[in-house]
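comment on this one:
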Amino acid sequence: MNVKQNAALYEKDLENALITHLQDFLLELGKGFCFVSRQQRITLDGEHFFM
């Protein structure tokens, strides 16, 4: 990961680094695997959440 060890981390920076590596891993697996999106929006009781 390209995240500095002693730097103050923001959640979005950590999320971005993890998702990037997960995306690369899934794409390396080849046939039968895909990466759909970085975040998927779900709506519950009129509120939007991203997972």
Summary: The helical segments are 11-29. Residues 11-50 form one domain. The mean pLDDT is 80.
